[in-house]
């Protein structure tokens, strides 16, 4: 925890702590360069030792910094100071959606729909830039004092999504999609699922799946059908209920294809609350178990038997030609195979001074990752490629060739 008065990056003065999560603490700070108040999110110490995590954290935070939308908390800066990694964000005076739900119990249909539309607009802007939030939940949605809804914590969730179940770091398993808790591939449709769970909580005052442990909750996301929100809110309009149920389908294919479709239906629900316009792919044409009759089973068996007999008949012919084919295969092993072996041997060789001298900035970055070097390319500008090259050479114990000397690669090319 940072003390009041600490200055990060010779610019941001810590005023007070305003929040804390499993992964980071959030402080109110003053930006002395631009003379404005900002929010500074500081990673907790247990995350500062993992170089891979730090690299992903920086990359995602920098991508989020490229987003500019009224419904997204803007990211101003990313930095590191004396081992402290931080993100500087827009300071939004207000309350989280989670606290707002806790205070009101349930939100009105109009209010819940308005909030859902604003969050959807923010997610749509992110998805259009190929950025997936992966941690949409009421705790990451802020309602400002002037009523504006903003989504925060972009990018951070992507760097830590693998911890959703195995650790209490995220605390997000109540809102995680089935593909996320399974540990498989997740994309923007995971955000749609999480937003659906958030909408469910807004209109009912509770989450659909709960349990004593994160694993128990995760299993419910995978196996149990979601209860209809109208069970807890009997006067819930039919259209909004169908929207929530479509967002929270187990299979990503049965959810909305994109945020634009969801936004259209949410707006339509305000004009036609009891309308039957939400289209969900029927389960019967998607994943229903098909019963095979005795007659069909008999046909399958007879077809399999016929195929087996045909293979048996072909076996003598296969044996007859096997020797010839083996000889042809032996003859085919020639120059190309030797070339592959040479390439494999070259790939296993250590980095030579000539190789290092010919690398550009991107290649040096890859080398630092492959060799797990202490040298951090993020500390160098792309124009400082020579400085980075010297730092890498020093750590690898390589003496770089003099500039006037021609590289060994050029010499080899001339010989060829």
How are the SSEs ordered, and which strands pair?
Elements: E1 7-8, E2 12-20, E3 24-31, E4 36-43, H1 51-65, E5 75-81, E6 84-90, E7 94-96, H2 97-104, H3 109-128, E8 141-144, E9 149-151, H4 156-160, H5 178-181, H6 188-204, H7 214-223, H8 238-247, H9 259-271, H10 294-332, H11 335-348, H12 353-357, H13 361-371, H14 385-396, H15 408-415
Antiparallel strand pairs: 1-2, 2-3, 3-4, 4-6, 5-6, 7-8, 8-9
Helix pairs in contact: 3-6, 3-9, 6-8, 8-9
Note poorly predicted spans: 160-171, 321-325, 328-339, 341-348, 404-416
Note the total helix count.
15
User: What is the SS-derived class?
Assistant: alpha+beta
- What kind of sheet is the major sheet? 6 strands, antiparallel
The gyration radius over C-alpha positions equals 29 Å
Strand order of the largest sheet: 1-2-3-4-6-5
Strand content: 5-15%
Termini separation: 62 Å
| SSE run | EEEEHEEEHHEEHHHHHHHHHHHH
Description:
Residues 160-171, 321-325, 328-339, 341-348 and 404-416 have low confidence and may be disordered. This protein starts with 6 loop residues before the first strand and ends with a helix. Helix content is 46%, strand content 12%. A six-stranded antiparallel sheet has the order 1-2-3-4-6-5, with helices on one face. It has 416 residues and is an alpha+beta fold. The chain contains 15 helices and nine strands. The protein has helices spanning 51-65, 97-104, 109-128, 156-160, 178-181, 188-204, 214-223, 238-247, 259-271, 294-332, 335-348, 353-357, 361-371, 385-396, 408-415; strands at residues 7-8, 12-20, 24-31, 36-43, 75-81, 84-90, 94-96, 141-144, 149-151. Helix 3 runs antiparallel to helix 6, helix 3 packs antiparallel against helix 9 (259-271) and helix 8 (238-247) packs antiparallel against helix 9.
């Amino acid at each position: 925890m940072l003390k009041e008065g600490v200055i990060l990056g010779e610019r941001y003065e810590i005023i007070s702590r305003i929040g804390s999560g499993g992964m980071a603490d959030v402080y109110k700070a003053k930006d002395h360069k631009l003379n404005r108040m900002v929010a500074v999110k500081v990673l907790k110490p247990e995350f500062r030792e993992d170089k891979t995590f730090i690299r992903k954290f920086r990359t995602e935070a920098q991508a989020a910094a490229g987003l500019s939308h009224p419904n997204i908390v803007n990211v101003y800066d990313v930095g590191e100071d004396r081992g402290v990694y931080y993100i500087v964000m827009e300071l939004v005076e207000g309350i989280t959606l989670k606290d707002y739900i806790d205070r009101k119990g349930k939100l009105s249909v109009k209010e819940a729909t308005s909030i859902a539309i604003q969050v959807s607009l923010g997610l749509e802007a992110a998805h259009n830039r190929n950025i997936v939030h992966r941690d949409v939940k009421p705790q990451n949605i802020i309602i400002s004092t002037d009523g504006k809804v903003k989504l925060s914590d972009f990018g951070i969730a992507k760097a830590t999504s693998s911890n959703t179940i195995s650790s209490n770091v995220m605390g997000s398993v109540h809102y995680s999609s089935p593909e996320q808790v399974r540990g498989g591939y997740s994309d923007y449709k995971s955000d749609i699922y999480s937003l659906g769970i958030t909408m469910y909580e807004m209109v009912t005052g509770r989450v659909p799946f709960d349990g004593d442990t994160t694993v128990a909750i995760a299993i419910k996301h995978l196996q149990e059908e979601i209860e209809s929100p109208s069970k807890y809110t009997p006067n819930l309009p039919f259209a909004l209920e169908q929207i929530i149920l479509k967002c929270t389908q187990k299979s990503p294919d049965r959810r909305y294809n994109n945020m634009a479709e969801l936004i259209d239906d949410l707006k339509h629900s305000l004009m036609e609350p009891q309308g039957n316009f939400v289209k969900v792919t029927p389960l019967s044409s998607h994943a229903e178990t098909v019963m095979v009759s005795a007659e069909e089973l008999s046909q399958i068996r007879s077809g399999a038997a016929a195929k087996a007999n045909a293979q048996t008949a072909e076996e003598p012919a296969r044996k007859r030609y096997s020797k010839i084919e083996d000889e042809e295969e032996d003859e085919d092993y020639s120059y190309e195979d030797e070339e592959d072996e040479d390439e494999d041997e070259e790939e296993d060789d250590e980095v030579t001074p000539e190789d290092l001298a010919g690398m550009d900035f991107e290649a040096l970055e890859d080398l630092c990752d492959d060799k797990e070097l202490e040298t951090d390319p993020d500390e160098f500008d792309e124009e400082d490629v020579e400085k980075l090259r010297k730092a890498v050479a020093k750590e690898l114990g390589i003496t770089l060739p003099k500039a006037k000397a021609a590289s060994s690669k050029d010499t080899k090319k001339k010989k060829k």
